[in-house]
């Protein structure tokens, strides 16, 4: 789950392969569908773009709905991303489980 600056809650529904947006006013809409998210990690940057783990990659969803792949592993040793987060300076940090460290 992740909350945007407008108080909307974004939730991964792995069984339905979607990201659902729970709008603060009480509505629920499908934000993205047809996904095969490996683990349900979502986060926002300071610009309001949503980031999600997708298989072993990281995708960015901008406010207009454009999806961009911003990270793709170089090889099999980078295939276990366990979480993603931004710091207050806007830097993306990636926790790589099988290597035991965080890349920023």
What does this structure look like?
- This protein has 104 residues and is mainly β.
- It has one domain (2-103): 6 Propeller (Neuraminidase), CATH 2.120.10.30.
- Helices cover 0% and strands 48% of the residues.
- It is built from no helices and 11 strands.
- Strands 1-2-3-4 form a 4-stranded antiparallel beta sheet, with no helix packed on it.
- A hairpin with a 5-residue loop joins strand 5 and strand 6.
- It starts with a strand and ends with a strand.
- The mean pLDDT is 78.
Question: How are the elements arranged and paired?
Answer:
Elements: E1 2-3, E2 9-13, E3 18-22, E4 28-33, E5 42-44, E6 50-54, E7 57-61, E8 67-71, E9 81-86, E10 92-96, E11 101-103
Antiparallel strand pairs: 1-2, 2-3, 3-4, 5-6, 6-7, 7-8, 9-10, 10-11
Rg over alpha carbons: 14 Å
Helix segment tally = 0
CATH evolutionary superfamily: TolB, C-terminal domain
With strands numbered from the N-terminus, the spatial order across the biggest sheet is 1-2-3-4
Report the principal-axis shape. globular
Assign the CATH architecture: 6 Propeller
Give the helices and strands as they follow along the chain: EEEEEEEEEEE
How far the N terminus sits from the C terminus, by CA atoms, comes to 21 Å
According to DSSP, the number of beta strands is 11
Helix content: under 10%
Total domains, how many?
1
Mean pLDDT: 78
Helix-strand makeup class: mainly beta
Q: What is the level 1 CATH name?
A: Mainly Beta
CATH structural fold name = Neuraminidase
Tell me the fraction of residues in β-strands, as a range: over 45%
Please outline the major beta sheet: 4 strands, antiparallel
Residue windows where pLDDT falls under 50 for at least 5 positions: none
């Amino acid at each position: 789950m992740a909350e945007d600056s407008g108080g909307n809650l974004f939730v991964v529904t792995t069984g339905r392969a979607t990201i659902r947006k729970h709008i603060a006013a009480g509505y629920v809409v499908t934000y993205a569908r047809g996904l095969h998210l490996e683990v349900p990690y979502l986060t926002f940057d300071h610009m309001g773009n949503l980031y999600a783990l997708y298989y072993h990659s990281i995708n960015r969803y901008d406010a207009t709905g454009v999806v961009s792949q911003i990270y793709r592993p170089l090889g099999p040793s980078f295939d276990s991303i366990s979480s993603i987060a931004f710091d207050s300076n806007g830097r993306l940090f990636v926790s790589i489980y099988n290597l035991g460290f965080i890349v920023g």
